[in-house]
Specification:
The protein is an alpha/beta fold. 40% of the residues lie in helices and 18% in strands. A hairpin with a 7-residue loop joins strand 2 and strand 3.
Length: 733
């Protein structure tokens, strides 16, 4: 984190090439500074023992335990000299549970002498099950001996840091390497301004590094972690604040809608009134569009809260003001769906230049990679002449050939599916930087929005439009109660008999192109027992079995775009009763007559994804039903996740649950390519207060000194955070 000579020192000079090579390859650590910022995952007290019952399966663990028993077995072996092999079985205990250690062959001699009953040691290895008992095979170990001058009390109470380790490098070896470089911590340059550190009562960075690696008390650990959390939150928020500050200096064309133009004509023909939330968010967007700096706004909201309507009104306002608007969708299915619904909502207002078109009308064109040459040529011509005010498309919009007459607004749907370069390329197509509106369909907790999308102002839609029906969700435990699944298909039939339609969602397509190795691997996997349910197989079984006589069709990502579009059109028109699909229907698909959804192997989807899928039903006046089918046992974490989804419709609450169950890196990793997580001690959900305060402090610092000329330590920390890739991410975003 610090470009100081001592901390820049390559590890191979300090630790020797072999250890340095393992650290670089397996832990990504190259310099003394990197190693000092490799913090302990947790601490054990030397006198206390680890709870063995809580160990995770198939993970590399480090435990403190006591040897209860050691037995050497001799057995016949053709591989061993003199035909006799040896196996040492050591039982270790935490006072309650027990764990078996096994050593074979030549590896038994040293542990046989050292691991005597009563001995305490650190043991590291991978947890597996053998004969229904937990075991570590050939673990590495380090005996815990008190130094001669230590009293029993200080020895027993001493805290042992346990580091994120690998099979190639045990925690205690990392600890010894850190002890070697720890004196260099004194030279760490502090990124926090003195006033901030003193005002918040935080220890200095050198002191924090000493305390996190060599704590004397638990209070030392708390002091260090509090301080290091501030570093991570503050440096990241400064990066984002500088980005916002730089954007605010860019020029843009102000886009103010005409009082009686296209937007007014559109609003007049709406058959419903906008929700309060939609009106409030629209005002925020229109205020931004009216300024001479580019808008950078994130529009997030509940599934079905009417984000597309808000985005469309922003596009119409831009067209009113003489500009063009582009909407970027992540898939062809979604681009076609958006194009269809926008044209439907606008009616004759989308028929600019055509007979029967309204006087305020504009042209709405679709541009995707699979369009025919003639249609594509016409769409490109409409864009460059300005004939088309609105274009909706996939990343085909970004290609060099696509030229705009005057691009004023870019709407990006489902932000995290777009690479940075794509967003950047589209922004470069305007005469001046266009305004940017990013829509995300997955509600994001405030802290994550501040961390991942911290360069964007945020608008939230948390009200559902009037007339939306509640969705009843239930878990269907197919393994425990097979008759529940039979009942699920009966419910689908009942919905169809009542004039409605249903979706069935599967995790896999299931054609020959599926990787047979993958299917075989998961079939062998004890926890999974079989490959995930597949669209083609399930559709076939349903059509021949429980849904015999109904019109069942399939939809998945490998179909030709024209075929996908035809399937969606038939479903939207009510010609198809049941659509068996992959997650291609996850966002933007709007068929108000579809009231039921059955999600097969629901435990294989994330919480937010399930919420997203469920939002496809209950979009009309009839109540929605979502059935989550799983074979997971009741006590499993996967089953509890499904119960959480069934119990609440609040997407913001579900996204919190989702994030608490996943690692932080996933949260930040989804932001963009290039935004690898730099968070080691900061937990996005738990540390809400630190992030909010750090953001305030960062804004104040950047406003006072945008180039950070008076804060060399902070500049250094920023340079380390913004490696080349990440720098591009922040600049291009």
């Amino acid at each position: 984190m610090d470009l100081v000579p001592a901390l820049e020192e390559p590890l191979k000079k300090v630790l020797g090439p072999p250890t340095a090579k393992v650290m670089a390859e397996h832990l990504g650590l190259h310099t003394v500074g990197d190693l000092l910022h490799h913090y302990p995952r947790r601490y054990e007290e030397r006198g206390q023992l680890t709870h063995l019952a809580d160990l995770p399966m198939d993970e590399h663990v480090t435990v403190v335990a006591m040897v209860a028993d050691a037995r050497l077995h001799t057995f016949a072996s053709s591989k061993a000299p003199r035909g006799k092999g040896q196996r040492l079985e050591v039982t270790i205990t935490d006072g309650n549970g027990r764990l078996q250690l096994v050593f074979f062959g030549n590896g038994v001699h040293k542990p046989h002498k050292e691991l005597l009953p009563g001995t305490r040691a650190l043991f590291a290895g991978k947890v597996s099950v053998f004969n229904r008992r937990l075991q570590l095979a050939h673990p590495a170990y380090e005996l815990l001996r008190g130094d001669a001058e230590e009293t029993v009390e200080t020895w027993a109470g001493a805290l042992i840091p346990l580091y994120p380790a690998t099979a190639k490098l045990e925690s205690w070896k990392i600890g010894k390497a850190i002890q070697l470089v720890l004196p260099s911590a004194q030279e760490a340059v502090d990124p926090l301004p003195d006033s901030l550190r003193e005002g918040r009562g935080l220890v200095s960075l050198p002191e924090a590094l000493l305390k996190i690696h060599r704590p004397h008390t638990k209070a030392d650990i708390d002091d260090a972690r509090t301080r290091l959390k501030w570093d991570e939150a503050f440096v990241l928020q400064v990066a984002l604040a500088r980005r916002r500050h730089a954007d605010a200096q860019l020029p843009a064309v102000a886009r103010k809608p005409k009082p009686d133009g296209l937007l007014s004509a559109f609003d007049d023909r709406l058959p419903f009134t906008l929700t309060e939330g939609q009106q409030k968010v629209s005002k925020e967007i229109f205020d931004d569009l009216a300024t001479e700096h580019p808008m950078h706004r994130l529009l997030q909201g509940e599934v079905g809260s009417g984000k597309t309507m808000v985005a469309l009104r922003a596009m119409l306002a831009t067209v009113d003001a003489g500009g063009q608007a582009a909407m970027l969708a992540p898939t062809e299915v979604l681009a076609q769906q958006h194009h269809r619904s926008v044209v439907e909502m606008m009616g004759e207002l989308a028929e600019g230049g055509m007979l029967g078109g309204s006087e305020h009308a504009t042209k709405v064109v679709l541009l995707t990679g699979s369009m025919g040459t003639a249609a594509r040529r016409q769409a490109l011509l409409d864009l460059v002449t300005g004939e088309a005010g609105i274009v909706i498309g996939t990343h085909a919009l970004i290609e060099d050939k696509v030229q705009f007459h005057d691009l004023g607004l870019v709407v990006v749907d489902e932000q995290h599916r777009f690479g940075v370069e794509q967003r950047d390329a589209l922004r470069g197509k305007g005469k001046q930087p266009p305004h940017l509106l990013v829509m995300t369909a997955t509600p994001i907790p405030r802290t994550v929005a501040m961390t991942v999308f911290g360069d964007l102002e945020t608008s939230v839609l948390d009200q559902l439009p009037a007339g939306r029906s509640p969705i009843a969700s239930h878990v269907v435990p197919a393994a425990d109660k097979p008759h529940f699944l039979a009942r699920a298909w009966e419910r689908v039939r009942e919905e169809v008999e009542n004039g409605h339609q249903a979706y069935v969602v599967c995790p896999r397509i299931g054609d020959d192109e599926d990787d047979p190795k993958k299917a075989r691997k998961s079939a062998e996997d004890e926890a999974e027992k079989r490959p995930p349910m597949a669209v083609l197989e399930v559709a076939d079984q349903l059509a021949k079995g429980p849904l015999n006589g109904l019109r069942v069709e399939v939809l998945h990502g490998r179909m030709h775009p024209d075929d996908k579009d035809a399937v969606m059109r038939r479903f939207a028109a009510g010609e198809t009763h049941v659509l068996v699909a992959t997650t291609v229907i996850e966002v933007g698909v709007n068929v108000p007559n579809a009231t039921a959804m059955v999600i097969m192997d629901a435990d294989r989807f994330g919480v937010s994804q399930l919420h997203q899928l469920r939002g496809r039903v209950g979009r009309g006046s009839a109540a929605g039903l979502c059935l989550l089918v799983t074979e997971m046992p009741e006590a499993s974490a996967a089953r509890q996740r499904l119960t959480a989804v069934a119990s609440t419709q609040d997407g913001f609450e579900l996204s919190r649950i989702d994030l608490e169950q996943r690692r932080e890196g996933d949260v930040l990793g989804q932001a963009q390519s290039g935004a690898r997580t730099s968070l080691k001690v900061l937990a996005v959900i738990e540390d809400e207060e630190v992030i909010a305060q750090a953001r305030e402090e960062a804004v104040a610092v950047v406003e006072a000194d945008p180039e950070l000329e008076n804060l060399p330590g902070l500049r250094t920390a920023l340079d380390a955070l913004l490696d080349e890739e990440r720098e591009q991410y922040l600049e291009k975003g």
